[in-house]
Design goal:
- The structure holds two protein chains of two kinds.
- By secondary structure, chain A is mostly helical.
- In chain A, helix 4 crosses helix 9 and helix 10 packs antiparallel against helix 11.
- Chain B is α+β, with helices and mostly antiparallel strands.
- Chain B has a six-stranded antiparallel β-sheet with strand order 1-2-6-7-9-8.
- In chain B, helix 11 packs antiparallel against helix 13 and helix 17 packs antiparallel against helix 18.
- The longest helix of chain B has 58 residues.
- Classes of the chains: A mainly alpha, B alpha+beta.
- Chains A and B meet through helix 2, helix 4, helix 6 and helix 7 of A and helix 1, helix 4, helix 8, helix 15 and strand 22 of B.
């Protein structure tokens, strides 16, 4: 197993190199690089002289030119960037003038909380949902659940988000939830418990939006694997030796069906860190999604590169974690 | 199968319960500590309020000796008179012994009370709050409460009046401006505002390492800045320039004691350091809001609100709902929202609704590339303008909440020539003009001249659905006259690159405004070369001459006459299709009083107050 892990880790290096180069190239060839995507200034209402000075500063900060103003070629730029990244320096945002790490620190907790709660809710609903629908295959409850979860899956989040906002955070209809942000304005006067309650109250609608589309996929996966396991010989054996049906289902079938979940969960882990741009935009949440989106628009190169880098590293690591978990959960899986 | 509850399971369960219990206890403990902190901070608040009352008392004593008046104390007449005169040698001298009070200020109103918070929306999270470096509109709004400049603009007369400066003196040739700083003025950290701070602010602005290139170019004409004693600053200029006073008088004054830096990079990176002499102090900036608190040491009239909070809600629908739900105190609605709510008596009776035009508003336009053969003659350009019914655009797409433009100057600005009327919608006359310009209808239903069909492309920013709608409307109008315009939405930066490289026939954009604009940047023929802002290549010798005359003319009346002539030339040539300038719209929570628009800038927050009974926050 150890050799396997080491081999996998070593294999990650070329993969990462390829990924970073792709990333680097795509970002460098985007138009409007040194004008900050035109977002820097309000419109183009600034004199040519200012634009030029700005461009020179940008070029120097992006390491497109060296200290004397001579252009650096693309491969060299990539190597320089790689070098500083390997030394552990994530970049400094050009727009915010703050280290990328600080920006992530500010935004990650928000995104992580919402995504973690959303994921928990999805699993809490989908696991029993998948089990029940599999056991009642073809009956009304199976069809109904399938229909509704698929219907929810096909609702666009931009529509549902705006609708929820328009009806449930609107004094003209139901003023049940706040329409924006994560806190009330007077949090300073709140006790700890009230603060938590206030926070939870504010994230209800965003969580609803991140949750509703997730039921269909997960429930269908679980339903499928349960049905598959029900056909297996060991189930017949268990039934034949007289075990009660509930034990057969929970201890044998359900347990084995959960193996599939390892992959699904593992793959969705990197997704926990990336916020949804649409949800964050609708509910005015300042999370990771917005950071990535605004950085792209303003061509904030260091932020885009580092976010993508962190994302790819996490994805590779979670793939590895999935494989290891498989081995731990199911000793039949051997990699060597 | 061994399914019993073993000792191991028992220990695990107990441990789990213990951990959960400990967590709950810790939360309770945290809650308790929090309560204590809140109690303490309310005590501190009371102390602060007492300090505030004492400050007010002291201010009154300083102003009027020991004759203390009842009521709010800012209204007494000053014993020294304001001076505004031109000396025999032509020097302009303005001296205000006391800072000018805002017109319609609330201090003498019977139910005036200090207190409460003002919660507004910034719309977009500022990227940084560093003075000079920050460019977002939101940052400017926040800085406006915290930092001050030597002069401030009077909202009614639009003139620059002494503020941190007690007086200023402009030499007859306009090449030297002397400011004397008010001795009372101090920063929120207690340090007095001195000439050295002004010099420091100027040097910071001019430091090439500081990220403020767009602002720095305005200071290009400043030759030197020097201090005389502790309270006098003298700016000298290379050329006379009509904006000199505005440029140096409007410079934010930073406390050197706080902002001192060795390397410019340090200055750029202090995104959360905002200190100044203004009525409010920067308190904190969390992900969703920026909090300003009253500056208890403020040297001028004590501000009304205890706190000003800026939230960040990007979605206009959410912002309006937050306003309706009382989470925001003001909301600038979208035109469609305005039209919807203004019809509901229940809404208008319980909210203040204001619609106004400000002279600082920008305008939308279509720029023609005059280098292209189809746009090179003014008859064709005038005809294109006549083919588009701007009143219909305003009525349909802007819900009537905009004004047509006749030239590059805002209708409310003194720069605008009132004798020029917008070109009327007249397709018949447009056809005549097109014929006179040499265009003939071809068999394909498209106009031709010199063997070339009248086909062109218009570039527009893809993020703005409103502009897309207007362009589609224009396309239909042009098609009726035999002109084939294709609409090409582009991402903003791509569009700007195309404009900079002059690879366009026409484009749709907006310019941001100003009270008195310098036309040089957009209209002088010298601004075409080197990717300048005169992208369409407007090249008119007479206009160039007027621009350079106007820039050097220090007499306001004479300068306005020059701008009026300049505008007449632009109107005659029609290098742009000038479209419209939008009205500013504002909804304000009803608990605020004295919110009526003042002068030409609309409602001024500094004038608002909440009577004691209606106050919402402590």
């Amino acid at each position: 197993m150890t050799t396997y892990i080491i081999r996998r880790l070593l294999l990650m290096i070329p993969t990462l190199l390829g990924m970073t180069f792709m990333l680097f190239a795509v970002v460098r060839f985007a138009p409007g690089l040194t004008t900050g995507g035109g977002q820097f200034s309000a419109g183009i209402m600034q004199s040519r002289q200012a634009q030029k000075q700005e461009q020179q500063i940008m070029e120097r900060r992006l390491h497109l030119v060296d200290k004397n103003g001579h252009p650096i070629n693309l491969v060299m730029q990539y190597i320089l960037w790689l070098k500083s990244t390997c030394e552990g320096h994530l970049g400094t945002s050009i727009v915010y003038q703050e280290p990328v790490l600080t920006l992530i620190e500010q935004r990650l907790p928000v995104t992580l909380t919402i995504n973690a709660i959303a994921m928990a809710v999805i699993y809490l609903v989908s696991l029993p949902g998948g089990l029940i629908t599999a056991l009642n295959q073809g009956r009304l409850i199976d069809r109904g659940y399938g229909f509704f979860s698929l219907a929810l899956y096909s609702l666009p989040v931009i529509w549902l988000g705006s609708t929820l906002l328009g009806f449930f955070a609107n004094p003209q209809y139901f003023n049940w939830f706040p329409s924006a942000g994560l806190h009330s304005t007077n949090t300073g006067d709140m006790t700890y418990f009230r603060y938590i309650a206030d926070y939870l109250y504010h994230i209800v609608l965003p969580i609803v939006c991140s949750v509703y589309g997730g039921f269909a996929f997960l429930s269908k996966q679980i339903r499928g694997s349960i049905l598959e396991n029900l056909q297996q010989d060991y189930v017949r054996t268990a039934r034949a030796k007289g075990l009660p049906e509930s034990t057969v289902l929970v201890r044998h079938v359900f347990r084995n069906s959960l193996l599939n979940l390892i992959t699904l969960t593992g793959m969705s882990l990197p997704g926990l860190l990336g916020g949804s741009v649409i949800i964050e935009q609708i509910f005015s949440i300042n999370g990771m999604g917005r950071l990535a989106y605004t950085s792209t628009l303003s061509r904030d190169l260091p932020v885009i590169q580092d976010l993508a880098l962190v994302g790819s590293v996490l994805t590779l690591l979670s793939y590895l974690a999935v494989d290891i978990c498989y081995h731990l959960a199911d000793p039949r899986v051997i990699y060597d | 199968m061994d399914n019993r509850f073993t000792l191991k399971d028992f220990i695990f369960t107990v441990l789990l319960l213990l951990i959960i219990g400990a967590a709950v206890l810790a939360m309770g403990q945290f809650n308790y500590v929090n309560k204590q902190v809140i109690a303490l901070s309310s005590q501190i608040k009371t102390l602060n309020e007492q300090q505030l009352a004492q400050t007010q008392l002291l201010q009154q004593i300083v102003r009027h000796g020991l004759r203390i008046q009842s009521g709010a104390g800012q209204t007494a007449k000053t014993s020294q008179k304001d001076i505004r005169e031109t000396l025999p040698d032509g020097t302009r001298y303005v001296c205000y012994p006391n800072p000018p009070l805002l017109p319609h200020n609330p201090y003498s109103l019977p139910d005036y009370a200090r207190g409460d918070w003002l919660v507004e929306n910034l719309g977009e999270q500022p990227r940084t709050l560093t003075p000079f470096v920050a460019r977002d509109e939101g940052a400017t709004v926040v800085q406006g409460w915290v930092q001050e400049s030597l002069l401030s603009r009077d909202p009614v007369t639009l003139k620059w009046e002494p503020w941190l400066a007690r007086s200023y003196r402009v030499s007859p040739n306009g090449l030297k401006i002397t400011f004397k700083i008010r001795r009372r003025a101090c920063f929120s950290n207690g340090h007095p505002v001195t000439a050295q701070d002004v010099l420091f602010s100027y040097n910071t602005m001019m430091n090439p390492g500081v990220d403020d290139a767009p602002q720095r170019v305005y200071f290009n004409d400043v030759k030197s800045c020097r201090t005389v004693g502790k309270h006098t600053v003298i700016f000298t200029f290379k050329h006379p320039y009509f904006k000199s006073l505005e440029v140096v008088g409007g410079l934010s004054i930073l406390p050197e004691s706080v902002y001192k830096f060795k390397k410019a990079g340090q200055f750029n990176k202090r995104g959360r350091l905002l200190v100044g002499s203004g009525p409010y102090m920067f308190d904190k900036w969390t992900s969703g809001e920026i909090v300003l608190v009253r500056n208890p040491r403020y040297w001028g009239p004590l501000p009304t609100f205890n706190r000003i909070i800026y939230r960040v809600i990007q979605n206009p629908q959410a912002a309006l709902q937050a306003f309706l739900g009382g989470q925001l105190d003001t909301d600038p609605p979208e035109p469609s929202q305005w039209v919807k709510y203004i019809k509901q008596p229940k809404f208008t009776q319980t909210h203040h609704c204001y619609k106004f035009l400000t002279p600082a508003a920008g305008y939308e336009f279509v720029c023609w590339n005059l280098k292209k053969p189809e746009f090179k003659d003014r008859l064709t350009r005038t005809a294109l303008c006549m083919l588009v019914d701007r009143n219909a655009i305003i009525k349909t797409f802007m819900y009537g909440l905009a004004q047509p433009m006749t030239g590059p100057f805002n209708p409310l600005s003194p720069q605008n020539n009132p004798n020029i009327k917008p070109i009327a919608y007249d397709p018949a006359k447009a056809r005549v003009l097109l014929r006179r310009a040499g265009w003939k209808m071809g068999t394909d239903g498209i106009l031709h001249r010199d063997g070339k069909a009248f086909k062109f492309q218009i570039l527009l920013p893809s993020r703005d659905p409103l502009i897309q709608k207007i362009c589609v409307y224009m396309k239909q109008q042009f098609a009726k006259a035999g002109i084939d315009m294709s609409v090409q939405p582009l991402e903003f930066s791509v569009m700007i690159e195309k404009i900079d490289d002059r690879q366009f026939s026409s484009f749709f954009l907006g310019w941001s405004g100003g009270i008195e604009n310098d036309p040089y940047q957009i209209w002088d023929s010298a601004s075409y070369a080197d990717k300048g802002s005169n992208a369409g290549d407007f090249d008119n010798a007479q206009a160039d001459k007027l621009i350079s005359e106007g820039r050097r003319e220090m007499n306001t009346a004479k300068r306005m006459a020059i701008w009026h002539k300049f505008q007449a030339i632009v109107y005659h040539e029609q290098p742009y299709m000038f479209l419209f300038t939008s009205d500013a719209l504002m909804f304000i929570n009803e608990r605020f009083h004295n919110t009526a628009p003042v002068g030409k800038f609309g409602p001024l927050e500094a004038n608002w107050f909440v009577p004691l009974k209606l106050q919402k926050y402590q």
